[in-house]
Amino acid sequence: MTKLREQEDFVSGHRACAGCGLALGARLAMKGVEQDSIATCATGCLEVISTPYPESSWEIPWIHSLFENSASVAAGIEAALKAKGDNKTKVIAQGGDGATVDIGMRGLSGMFERGHDVTYICYDNEAYMNTGIQRSGATPLAASTTTSPPGKQSYGNENTKKDALAIAAAHGVGYVASASIAYPKDVVEKVKKASELDGPSYVQIHVPCPTGWGFKERDTIEIARLAVETALWPVYQMEDGQITNIRKIKDRKPVERYLEKQKRFKHLFKKDNGEKRIKEIQAIADRNAETFELDK
Amino acid sequence: MVERRVMEGSHAVAHAVRLCAPDVVSAYPITPQTHIVEKISQFVADGDLKSEYMRVESEFSAMSASVGSSAAGARTFTATASQGLMLMSEVLYNASGLRLPIVMSVANRAMGAPINIWNDHSDSMGVRDAGWIQLYAEDNQEALDMTIQAYKIAENQDVMLPAMVCMDGFILTHTYEPVSIPKKEEVQEFLPEFDPEVKLDPQNPVTLGTVGFPSDYMEIRHEQYQAMENARDIMPDIFKEFEEKFGRKQHSLIEEYKTEDAEIIIVSLGSIMGTIKEAVDELREDGKQVGAIKIKAFRPFPDQELRDALQNTKAVAVLDKNITLGKKGALYTEMKDTLYQAETQPQMTNYIIGLGGRDIPRQSIKNIVKQTKENLNSPQTREVRFVDLKEEK
Ligand SMILES: Cc1ncc(C[n+]2csc(CCOP(=O)(O)OP(=O)(O)O)c2C)c(N)n1
Questions:
Q1: Checking CA distances to A172, which of A96, A115, A261, B383 falls within 20 to 30 Å?
Q2: What does each of the 296 residues of chain A score in pLDDT, given as a tens digit?
Q3: Given CB atoms, is A218 within the 8 Å cutoff of chain B?
């Protein structure tokens, strides 16, 4: 069994909602970074909950600049460290799914392409939570958000989730991994591996949000696990473009088990033809299972 | 011996950057700035400058990377113009709010649409409220000198604000002039290594860029306001120190030219000052009492210097290479604010000139002076005039 580092870099006293998957995700991720480190953070829930001036939940040097430039700021820090001859300090960039797959994608792509020694961690809560639950490019098909509500003409979000892991891998990023807070040790190990690699690395952690998704605070971990067990969130790692680890699923669960527990999918069980959408979501899960050979 | 060489303005700035030896340069090309970052990349390639040279994917990242680099305690340089400056604009506020002394060259260029690569000042004037120190160079020598001075001002512990050195695109960037290149050792003496009190350092962790609630936001902004006032106070000393060290006459935040007995004074900034000074010389030969004032620093704005210098003049012609639509030229409106506090208030007229690279002949300056004189006698004047519009001819 891996022994977790005792040192906490992201400490209690922050202002996250009860049951926040993101706060847990950040705490675990920081446990994975064992060397001295500097972290950047995009605008979003993580920044807002952790740095109310003059307080801070960060035990490591940390900087927030903007919504869309966590990766670029991190690249600048890495360049500064290099210029100063410091090749020991690790640079961690953090952002929500919106900051990562939408508005910050250009800067992230540049950071990958130039090969900066930065570990980028995306905390994926599948919407813009900080501004009140609007759709992002990582919002799954048919989910209800305040900008993709179901209505007479709509079944919620019209697009499928953008595959940022594939985008990262396409850049030739040496280490790309998905993780889930339902498997804490896995999160820590993946971030550790990512941060120890020279060059850019990318870890996307699935972090359910009780407020935005509509479930009970105590159910965060269960929801996270159901996403994995239904194959809607495949948990795997890629090294140099090859998949080197996959969390296999025993007795894969139907997607309804996951959807029915969340308000954001409630309409699918009430609206005419909702089952058609559920089938489409099941097809996504089946495809994931096939692509990643998830079934045991 | 000081090296004196004929080179284009972009290369003069690149030499200044080489001498200031930033740890990190982040670069994205845009006309007419491109030659600056190209020349710097050559210096790096040849080992004449030991900087991390970041070939970023956009101006947005050029400024973002500068924020990261400067926050990590590294001296940082970047350069841009026009649309690039606008793409950076959100980050510009962050750089100053985070109190990061980044230095940036702006090769001034008009804003589209219509797309236009030639010179005016609508780009840098458009971001005058971003909390950056703004210096405007008259010639290539000044562009070089100001770049070195900008680091010294920006990195002062009581300032810690970013600074842009504005130079007119093409008119300076692409024009060959003789420039003196200071010795490296002398620049190092003038500009010691950058070692900020607050930086991202694992040995002494700090949180930068926190959420500023209404309970604290105003105090933090007030500190930043004070920092700009501190810059105002220390700049004359730095200019003087530069003059003593490098032997080139430096002025205060403004430069006065034949203003002593002038009844009409032309106020402007940038490369147009050369033409203005020549026009003033010719008018003086004709016995006209005309002078000129160059604004060297637009931020902080030289309020007191202008009030003192314009005390005894009858009329002021403000030449703006920009237009604030729905209002007037940016320099003009700022000057009016300044002179409201003055004991005597000269008549003021605003001339919009040279937009999008339109030529500014000496004769146009002379016409402006003539017009300004006529205004003195006629109570009804238009406050803003576009100079040399085709329809007006
Ligand atoms: C340029 C810009 N546009 C919009 C915003 C408003 N904004 C702040 S955070 C945010 C969404 C954050 O969502 P995400 O990155 O998914 O992080 P989360 O809060 O969900 O963790 C938005 C839209 C902003 N700060 N800057």
A1: A96
A2: 567 888 899 988 899 999 999 999 999 999 999 999 999 999 999 999 999 999 999 999 999 999 999 999 999 999 999 999 999 999 999 999 999 999 999 999 999 999 999 999 999 999 999 999 999 999 999 999 999 999 999 999 999 999 999 999 999 999 999 999 999 999 999 999 999 999 999 999 999 999 999 999 999 999 999 999 999 999 999 999 999 999 999 999 999 999 999 999 999 999 999 999 999 999 999 999 999 999 99
A3: no
Cα B273-B277-B283 angle, rounded to 5 deg: 140
Chain A nearest CA to B74, separation (Å): 6
On whether the pTM is more than 0.90, the answer is yes
- State the Cα–Cα distance between residues B142 and B277, nearest whole angstrom: 16
Cβ contact B91–A69 (<8 Å): yes
Q: Would you say residue B392 has pLDDT above 70?
A: no
Task: Report which ligand 1 atom has the smallest distance to the Cα of A130.
Answer: 19
**Ligand 1 mean position, distance from CA B261 (Å):** 58
As to burial, measured by CB atoms within 10 angstroms (0-12 exposed, 13-18 middle, 19+ buried), residue B337 is exposed
Query: Which residue of B23, B57, B63, B100 to mutate against A (max A Cβ within 10 Å)?
Result: B57
Which runs of E-coded beta strand occur in A135-227? 150-151, 154-155, 175-180, 201-206
Q: Which two tokens stand for residue B118?
A: 């030639």
| Cross-chain CB nearest to B55 (options A64, A84, A114) | A114
Cα-only R_g, chain A: 18
Give the amino acid at B155: E
CB B226 within 8 A of CB B232: no
Answer yes or no: is the C-beta of A131 below 6 A from any ligand 1 atom. yes
**H-run or E-run covering B219:** helix B214-246
pLDDT band at residue B393 using 50, 70 and 90 as cut-offs? low
**Cα distance from B50 to chain A (closest Cα, Å)?**
8
Dihedral, A252, A253, A255, A260 alpha carbons, nearest 10: -160
Q: Is A63 an interface residue toward B (CB < 8 Å)?
A: yes
**Token representation of residue B112:** 């589209």
Take atom 25 of ligand 1 and give the residue whose Cα is closest.
Answer: A67
Please give the full DSSP string across B266-301, using - where no structure is assigned: EEE-TTHHHHHHHHHHHHHHTT--EEEEEESEEES-
Average pLDDT over residues B61-74: 98
